[in-house]
Here is the input.
Amino acid sequence: MKRVSNLYEQIISVGNLRLADEKARRGKANSYGVQAHDRNREANIQALHEALLTKTFRTSQYDVFTIHEPKERIIYRLPYYPDRIVHHAIMNVLEDIWVRTFTHNTFSCVKGRGIEGCAQYVTKIIRKYNGRPLYCLKIDIRKFYPSIKHRVLMRIVRRKIKDKDLLWLLDEIICSVREVKTPLSTPRERPLGKRYLSMSKQPHKKAAYNVDEKDKTESEGLPIGNYLSQYLANLVLCYFMHKINEVLKLDSAEYADDIIFLADNKETLRDALNKFIRPYIEEELELKLKDNWQIFPIAENRADRHGRALDFVGYKFYRRQKFIRKSIKQNFCRAAARLNKRKRPLTATEYKQAVAPWLGWAKHSNSKHLLKTIIKKEFHESIL
Here is the structure.
């Protein structure tokens, strides 16, 4: 595989930093971080360029908090300046390189793919088995982001990149945080003010969570919330998926740490799990599979008792039907019920905007009856 170099100067150029600033602020123009940065915008960009050029840049201290929807996760948040600008500057150059490295059946956080692209791909695979038995192996990696070893990730990054300066910057970001069991703050407790002064006026301080050189190869955890993390997570499983496609030649799809494999018999899937999938993930990547892995036949439809649905990326896939996952459907019904009970009448546009988060799921599944049931009759025709 060809390795790339001579990228660092392009990443730290003032023009690329300005472009990264424009991308990072989209939809956030009224946020405190953007407004504070804009007070000394050009001076900040020049100071950031100088810090990257002299390699004095250090990742800022993370604001750490917990969310509980859909499940409990620890989120790491960095300030807008300089960190989010740096991450966008890196991805301006590396995104195309890394996306070309990913397999065609990697869907998480890849532009033009995403959840709906993954759902369409799974439907296409299922149709390929028309007239043949169809079994699915579904696996999940235990605490995927917090369990990624820094030494493993840095080794994988070096399979594609050989630019020493860029590797220094990526290593700095990868090793900028350790696994934190208890949140250090909530979103409302984040320190504000002096952080956003120009770096030319106030030296940038090294993060409290930065690991020293001795601990780099012993630490673990990829911070959920970093713009770079989603691409680095895909990169961790990238070469594993290449092996699946090119050596085992199994039909498969990967969305973050959820991976499915499809075949026409159980033995093929069981052998693949025991002889390749589990050893590679646990020995090569040093991750752990959850014990809830399962091999099962996919049913023809909801009435078929000789199999069951494949629950994946928010849908329940049958061989001839596709429905919304139960939890998503329940949230949709509750939201529609609240809207239908409102005393102030809504326009068709307002109603559609309110149900838009669920409307896409319903339109791309067998949910015509559901929409007729929960959507107000006067809006049903106009919003679909």
Summary: The beta strands are 63-67, 73-77, 135-140, 251-255, 258-263, 294-297, 310-312, 315-317, 322-324. Residues 179-212 have pLDDT under 50 and may be disordered.
